Amino acid sequence: MSSSSTLAKRPSSPTDKDDVKKKKNIDAQYALELKLSEHSERPSIGVAGRKISVKTNYLRVRTLPTGSLLHYSFVVVPDAKPPLKTKIFSQLASQGNFGNTCPVFDGNSAIYTCTPLPIGDENDTSNFQISLPAEGRMKEKKFLVTIRKVENIEMEQLMGYLKEKCIMTSQIPTCITILNTVLNYGPRNNYAVVKQGIFPEDPNKKPIILTGGIELKVGFCQSMRPGWDNMLVNVDICAAIFYPAVSLIEFCRQILNKNSVNDLRRGINDYEMRELERAFKGIKIRVTHRGDRRLVIKVERLSSKVADDLYFNNEKEGRDMSVSEYFEKAYNRRLEFKSLPCIMDKKKNYIPFEVCEILNSQRYEKPLSDKAKADMIRKTAMSPQDRFHRIEEGIHHIFNHKDDENLRDFGIEIDQKMMIIEGRVLDTPKVKYARDEFVPQNGRWNLINKIFVRTRALVNWSILVLDQRANNQVKSFAREFKSTLIERGMDVQTDPAIEYGNMQGDFRKEMGMAYAKARLDRNQQVQIIIIIIPKKSSDIYGKIKLISDTELGIPTQCILSERLRKPNNKSCWNNIALKVNAKLGGRNSTLVEGQLDYLTNVKIPTMIMGADISHPGPSQTIQPSIAAVCASIDVNGTTYCGQVSVNEERRNETIEKLEEMATELLQIFSHKNGCLPHRMIFYRDGVSEGQFSGVVKKEVIALKKAFEKLYEQGKTPQLTFIVAQKKHHTRFVPVNRNDADQKGNCRPGTVVDQEIVQKNHFDFFLQSHSGIQGTTRPTHYHVLFDENNFKSDEIQEITYKLCYLYAKSTSAISIVPPIAYAHILAARVRMYPQVMDTNIVSGFQGRGSYSRNNSRRRNDTTEDCGDSDQKTAESGHSDESSNGGVSLPEVQAVLKNAIKQIVNKDNLDDDVVVYYENGLRKVKPYYYEYRTFAKGRWLGRNILDVFSTEFRDRPKEYYAYAIEKGLITVNSKKITAQTIIKNQDLIGHRIHRHEPPVTAEPIKILCVENDYIVINKPSSIPVHPSGRYRHNTVLHILQKEHGFSNLHSLNRLDRLTSGIMILSSKKAKAQEFEQQMKNRKIQKEYICRVEGEFPEGKVICDKPIKIISHKLGLNVVHEDGKPCTTIFERINYNGRTSVVKCKPLTGRTHQIRVHLQYLGHPIANDPLYANSKAWGSELGKGGIGEEKTNVVIENLIKEGFCEDGEMNFDTQKETKDCNVSQTNTEENEITDLQNQNNHAKDSIISDIKFCEECSIAKFSDPLLHQLLIWLHALKYEGDGWKYESELPFWSKDDFDGDIKYV
């Protein structure tokens, strides 16, 4: 597809408020044209499958209020938090201010009644003075309360909507809100509340304590919602974490996992001290040593000394006194735990642990440890029968609807029996392996005697052992696991290299050693590293995946060491084999042909797309929301690619970059299949019902805009947009035990699409999987937009069968695979520490290919521990073309590039102005922050020392000033000069950037085919962003002006060299091209104009060349250099210079230029190798001796040359820009900011102009002849292909521009 068609319909970005408003108006009109609404109409009730009866945790509402309900506002001055407002409202009610009316309060700002409040004001407004008595340390408080009538709410509209007599209006959600406020008002005032749940105290039940001493409480929740033709009440159990209502000493014992509180008498170490301080901070405690005056205080921190050594000035005694002595004297209490520290409140009072108890019903809001999470899942799991019995207890004894005076006052009557409704069990699809086809029983199967559908040869792999306890078992594991892989059909050609590492060591070093060991005596690339770890830990797992994804580019498989110690663990090895085969690019299973005809119809190709957004946790106040989209790119629905982006607005539920992400995925589909999809089913996760309208309108429009970019008018695909919800409280249990599975749950394939859903909405509940423990939760699918005109049975069966196509699971999963993959991808990116800083990622739109088969664990015996969501890839390391997906190295490279984009904020959408003047392409100066991760040699040194020694072109005083002003930062935070640099620190320096101009000559696109883009690169334009160049680079210009992104250059050209460049959007193509170059299967032909009369006939130069200055990128012929050969042939001679054809047989840096210099005919305008002031009159002919190399380097520096042999355009004025060596791109960029800032006014001659913004010296533009050398890449040719450009202007016979060089 040509670039022009790709970008033909790209909407312009809004640049001001008027443009934003205009864009919103256009989108609103678009929404009207598409008839977008909160839901699609239900086409019919499904009939497919076997009918069954199920009990569900819903109650019918028999009667609802009639007539009008009244809404009043409730305003408190001064403002108060909801719990305090509830107290104020309760006091108002207890004082009889509401007469005989029974109002309900929503806990915030609204009062609802069914009869008018006795408000005397003619404006229906009353003011009340309320005083709350002193309590604990809180003094008496007075408030002014204003109650004002807002509106009447007509219940007839809700009844009409339920009976399909009227459409949705704004008052209907308000009616439902009022009904829920009435329903929950009594219970929420009687019990502890967390979000929507209530948690009654049961003194007869033993507390459930999780790892870390925190308490798990199981409570109840209920909500009223529309059903088929009436309102329903959904009742369920819920769970929340609280601080235990115990003594602080006991809580301390639980946190530190001591056998007895007596173990605390000896004191605690520094590590335990930190653990306690982290756990205690923010807890409200009650002191017990002051009799009835039991003050409640909030813990701020712990004292640094223990009670026996903690002294304070006792003014009453007139001397210093320890805390333990004070308690003995003042309270006649000898402290038993005087070797423990004290807690401190805001007033810095010291209070010993043993006189404190934790206040009851305090919610625990800190992140849970991995062990606590596992405990919580295990202890909240209930069989369906136990769960429904518990719900019935809640209905009759906690909610007790029939005796609720608020429900009675509003005229609401609720049936007390849970509903029995009709469900259906869909037919199970037939699963296919290489030699086996079968129908899974209860949604599960095993791998006995099964061969994977497609495998990849495993020729080089290693095992890294990070748990010494597994050292003795690892060799036997390697044998057994290799045998298992072979049994599953894999060609395992070698035994793994085994590296014994240290869990406490540097993970990078350990994984690097495992990689290096596998490469010893083996030429093949390492394909996978198996890592044995001691425990489940998201921290360990995250570090491993960060290194494997962004540094090694090799997949890893984590296994718990305890699995190795279990004998005959064949089941576990089989499940890990699933994961390994998928990560290597294999396909484990598929569905039998004919099972998913809708997807596999090649005449009407279909794309399945899934999307999810990962939001930060409650305690993660600055982290961003990460959006991920995954889409199928094959007709089987088993190969997936993905895109990631970061939302600029935190917790925005809409995917802000969906248009760009969908465009990229559609292009990948087109490249693989030779056509774009005709249909798309888009599954969206993580959207609540209140967000349906906003999400469907914005995201459907985004998808439509993506279609418009790529499709001809009238040929865009038919779109179906479906939201999948897992976070709900609907549960089912079969009435007939024969319809249940072994655990009492419904069988996989159970679907419900009537009675508990709304008649006029196209939605259904589908339980596609078999639960491992507890009560299985169905997924609620809502079809919000449907151009494919699905019948209920069609979309239900497609959705169900897709759940059997999850890559590495021997079971159906609970949600469609593309959503599962998107969830994993977003969660995986969140593991990277760099993504956790909003300032860093705000511009990140890194959208990399993420190849299939991310696995969510469905079986406890499969172990890729940490988060059970693991990433794998369908497409393989070595044979990318065989499956048409994106290779695993490309996946890893994309993630690495994403991190680079995060580091350098390489955002093409910055407000950077490009303009053309005097034949030059210029970029207006812009602010830019250079960023780089800390180098190993920087670790442990302070920031000022690093800058003043590593980047020595500026005085130390400047760096001290930049640090003080916040221009130099660490991890985007202001620091001091003494800040010590640590591993993974991100160093930044913000400057006003002046980018050098380049030629205005456009980049000519010669060909776009077979994933290749061939261009004719003008001279002076560098290929990659580096040093001072960013927007004036080939990659930026191609993306900004032609829409080509994520390109890899297949050949190299110097900045000043023009000619053929070949690029590809696929890393595998670049690697393949590089291999062909190494094997000399590609012929290159250059053309140049050299000094003097070049000899006729073929001239072969095979002299080795060696780099003598990395700083200048300077090479010379040298006997210790690398071997290289170039064939030259003269084309013409004009009496001054010769045009010569060059065929390099090798690819050394500056090879042609150095060989021509050695032959005595350097390129005539080569500023580096034809510089007589540096090389002398002979210009280096025949080579130079060792003694002359330093002289040449010094001469070139004096001439104004700096990095990579570049010459400053005004060498008389700018000579300091070349005194820092650059060893890689990151250091290159960090260093370059010094080069731009080193021209202070007091160090440059007075006639130079300076930038008013940053005081950088502004120099004159380069002349056009300074932007090129007469060297041009004319032709590249391989097996069956050839790319050639036109001849450059300077190669023609009548060219006379060489006169001034002779």
Automatic annotation (TrEMBL):
Which GO biological process categories is it annotated with?
pseudouridine synthesis
GO terms for MF: pseudouridine synthase activity; RNA binding
Q: Which InterPro entries would you find in this protein's record?
A: ArgoL1 (IPR014811), ArgoL2 (IPR032472), Argonaute_Mid_dom (IPR032473), Argonaute_N (IPR032474), PAZ_dom (IPR003100), PAZ_dom_sf (IPR036085), Piwi (IPR003165), Piwi_ago-like (IPR045246)
User: Biased composition, Basic and acidic residues: where in the chain?
Assistant: 868-880
Q: Which UniProt keywords apply?
A: RNA-binding
Q: Domain (Piwi): give its ranges.
A: 528-834
Q: What Pfam families does the entry give?
A: ArgoL1 (PF08699), ArgoL2 (PF16488), ArgoMid (PF16487), ArgoN (PF16486), PAZ (PF02170), Piwi (PF02171), PseudoU_synth_2 (PF00849)
Q: Which residues form the PAZ domain?
A: 247-360
Q: Which residues form the active site?
A: D1054
**Protein name per Swiss-Prot or TrEMBL:** Piwi-domain-containing protein
